[in-house]
Amino acid sequence: MIPLKVNGVQRSFDGDPDLPLLWYLRDVLGLTGTKFGCGMALCGACTVHLDGKAIRSCVTGVGKVAGKEITTIEAISKDGLHPVQQKWIEFNVPQCGYCQSGQIMQAISLLKEKPKPSDEDIEGSMSGNICRCGTYQRIRAAIKAVAGENV
Amino acid sequence: MSDNILNISRRGFLQGVASTGALILSVRLVPDFLWAAETASGTHADHAVLHPSAFVGIDTDGTVYLVAHRSEMGTSSRTSVPLILADELDADWKRVKLEQAIGDPRYGDQDTDGSHSVRSFYEVMREAGATARLMLTRAAAQQWGVPVSECQSDLHVIVHRASNRRVGYGELAAAAAALPVPKKEELHFKPKSAWRYIGKGASSYDLADICTGKAGFGMDARLDGMVYASVEHPPVLGGKVKSYDEKAPLQVKGVKQTIPIKPFTPPHHFQPLGGVAVIADNTWAAFQGRKKLNVAWDNGVNSSYNSDQYKKELQQTARKPGKVARNIGDVDAAFAKGGKIVEAEYYVPLLAHATMEPPVALADYRDGKVTVWAPTQNPQAVQETVASELGIPKENVICHVPLLGGGFGRKSKPDYAAEAAILSKAVGRPVKVVWSREDDIKFGYYHAVAAMYMKAALDEKGKPTAWLQRSVFPPIGSTFALNTTYGSAGELGLGWTDLPFDIPNHRAENGPAENHVRIGWFRSVANIYHAFAAQSFANELAHESGRDSLEYLLDLIGPARIVDVKASAPEYENYGESPSLYPLDTTRVRRVVELAAEKAGWGKRKLGKGAGMGIAVHRSFLTYVATVAEVEVDDKGEVKIPSVHTAVDAGLVVNPEATRAQFEGAAVFGTSIVRSGEITAKDGAIEQSNFDSYPVARMNEAPYKTNVYIVDSDAPPAGVGEPGVPPFAPAVCNAIFAATGRRIRELPLSKTTASA
């Protein structure tokens, strides 16, 4: 049995420890906010937080996160909207929206580490997250707005 | 969500659904809109007290139900089209509930492609809104005993100003429902000055749900008792299974069984590719099980297809006379008279859509009927394809349309939905088919590879006296009919037979090419390679003439006039619209060129070393777009795109913010095409597989800032989803030339002189 905490709820998993966390979240727990995009940590759609830091859940086996705390988009804000979500809405960031859970989770992780990120910080952190619709400039603007810059 | 369920229960929807045998979805997991468009029971709009059209219903509590019948893949169609109806109804958008339509011909065309959702349904939506508003107005007048002419709407209420009376739409719904539905001739449409939403727009209806992970994409559809499937497809188009290991996949924990899927009968159309499916109790187990199938394939005739050799064949064909698709004057005679002759060849490879959400579908087959949840651009095609595969009537296929995690044309082809239906019938349970990224890249309906040959004769000022253009590409028609090798009038009308240039002798030709992979629509379709060749060549001619490329381009476009395209290209289709309503107007071509250049500071800004600007203009989907790209190329040949200025004349624009977003996105989509987009085949099998071998633009590679300028226009609405893509690649390549003197005639950059 693998113990782990998901969005504050204590869970235990008795399946294959190699099962990627992504599919545990989606197929076993029904937490479908976290998306499948590539299965190889190339696109970032599956980004969740492991003890508060962004990771790619598609290449992280459940066995690797035993005893750890996982947070997904569904629980990133306890009540109301997280400031990053608020700015995402204000800037009309999403188009199709499929990658945006991952983008938001990555951005929150970035801002936690660097509350006032430079352009280089933003590109360095966010370039692992692909948006095929091409919302990058709005993502950048929304992150800067959260950081308190006028954009 | 609770409200919605309450409403459903109140109308006995749950009982109705249960009695038809459809599954009741798990409440916890299914977003509102998957509930909304119910099966045989109809929509909330149908069941509302007042429902004068399939698109609208008004309940006694004042809730306005609007039906979104176009698919949402990121272009805001789901919001922008019903918004038109809401405006004409004078409804409060905050009191509108959108329902996503199932596939049903009563809504008309639902194939969300070709950038025509607003164009084709603008009048339909206005009529539906005006009809409901007139019925409400008449009901109020009747109630008050005053003439209808003295009553008018004012945001969800009807008012009688003389007596200062007001009554809400909800309170009027029952009385209005008793009135006859007015004829079109009786309707009065709101004047532009009274528009609330058209031209102002609204944020995506799903915006907050998307940002909180609650939105329901196709990938997220779930049913109790469902199993997951992953399909091993033949690596070569038309390949067949010779043998496979039925037992080994079962060693993977969670794998339940393997099921063969029969190969398609040519032409492939939307049929599944065939192969072997692995059924499991989670997606990953199904993926793992496939690795143990050990399928032996009979690869068939397409196994001799190699992209390198095929490219040479296309190029050779392009150098030979082809079928004439447009002719003005006498090109051969003009070439014989001499002048400076310029020739160039261009090449654009196969491209894959790579939607962030790979193809996926959930199907539940029971007793000769099947319900499908598919992220599809075309739910009626899902019905047709599934019906044909299962041998059941189309009416027995219900197709729900969740949000699409990107479409770009890939999801107009429902092969993946048919797989889910076939497998659900085979296993007797709901089945969700999930394509891996590798499946998506290797088994697409690719954007056609194309070779173009261009030749011009220039007078002493550099103006062409003759212009010859030839394109060769495997046509989309090959997906639907065997032995289709020439481009259709439709494909050639995508930026090839409709160039707006002022050239006395001008001929456009097309040569034959066989397909060896599935070819399909891809965001902006043939416009991509046609615009690349035409706008790059125009830039080459400017350089050959020693003239500024902006000034030259405007000279090539020539004076303000309406171009009668059909006079020189009799088969020209003009995107299905009449030339009188949607003419090719060079005034509008010139205006976007001048606007983009002005905003970019063309010729006014001093650029640094290694920097350059390029311009391109293209009309597609009846929208005029000019793009100025600024690039910086460093010593190693690395290209950066610090700014893009795009001017857009799309006629009347319903949703400006969503429109700007489409053009920002088109620049990024175009960046992928320019930098790295290339699909190749070896021995018939696609060589790329994931975002490592088929890279798409990331934040650090995309334009830093794309500025979009929308021309204020009262012309009828045209497209906005696709038209931003075609001028982008030539604008960037022209900018690279300006910056470095290196001419890019072949895409992507990663394969040519400048680095990606």
Question: What is the strand and helix layout of this fold?
Answer:
The complex is a heterodimer of chains A (151) and B (756).
Chain A: E1 2-6, E2 9-13, H1 21-28, E3 47-50, E4 53-56, E5 69-71, H2 83-90, H3 100-113, H4 119-126, H5 136-146
Parallel strand pairs in A: 1-5
Antiparallel strand pairs in A: 1-2, 3-4, 3-5
Helix pairs in contact in A: 2-5, 3-4
Chain B: H1 2-10, H2 13-19, H3 32-36, H4 44-47, E1 50-53, E2 56-58, E3 64-68, H5 77-89, E4 96-100, H6 117-144, E5 151-153, E6 157-160, E7 165-168, H7 169-177, H8 207-211, E8 227-232, E9 240-243, E10 255-261, E11 275-280, H9 283-290, E12 296-298, H10 307-318, E13 323-328, H11 331-336, E14 340-348, E15 360-366, E16 369-373, H12 379-390, E17 397-400, H13 415-427, E18 431-434, H14 437-442, E19 450-458, E20 464-472, H15 489-492, E21 506-511, H16 527-544, H17 549-557, E22 562-563, H18 565-568, E23 584-585, H19 586-600, E24 611-620, E25 623-633, E26 639-649, H20 656-675, E27 681-682, E28 685-686, E29 705-710, H21 728-740
Helix pairs in contact in B: 5-6, 6-7, 12-13, 16-17, 16-21, 20-21
Account of the 3D structure:
The complex is a heterodimer of chains A (151) and B (756). Chain A has 151 residues and is α+β, with helices and mostly antiparallel strands. Chain A has 2 domains: 2-75, Roll (Ubiquitin-like (UB roll)); 83-146, DNA polymerase, domain 1 (Orthogonal Bundle). Chain A has 5 helices and 5 strands; from the N terminus they run ββαβββαααα. Chain A has helices at residues 21-28, 83-90, 100-113, 119-126, 136-146, and strands spanning 2-6, 9-13, 47-50, 53-56, 69-71. Chain A has a 5-stranded mixed sheet with strand order 2-1-5-3-4, with helices on one face. In chain A, a hairpin with a 2-residue loop joins strand 3 (47-50) and strand 4. In chain A, helix 2 (83-90) crosses helix 5 (136-146) and helix 3 (100-113) packs across helix 4. The longest helix of chain A is centred in the last third of the chain and has 14 residues, at 100-113. Chain A starts with a strand and ends in a 5-residue tail after the last helix. By secondary structure, chain B is of the alpha+beta class. Chain B folds into 3 domains: 2-200, Aldehyde oxidase/xanthine dehydrogenase, molybdopterin binding domain (Aldehyde Oxidoreductase, domain 4), CATH 3.30.365; 220-300 and 359-434, Aldehyde oxidase/xanthine dehydrogenase, molybdopterin binding domain (Aldehyde Oxidoreductase, domain 4, 2-Layer Sandwich), CATH 3.30.365.10; 307-351 and 445-751, Aldehyde oxidase/xanthine dehydrogenase, molybdopterin binding domain (Aldehyde Oxidoreductase, domain 4, 2-Layer Sandwich), CATH 3.30.365.10. Chain B is 29% helix and 21% strand. Chain B is built from 21 helices and 29 strands. In chain B, strand 2 (56-58) and strand 3 (64-68) form a beta hairpin. In chain B, helix 6 packs across helix 7 (169-177). Chains A and B meet through helix 1, helix 2, helix 3, helix 4 and helix 5 of A and helix 8, helix 9 and helix 20 of B.
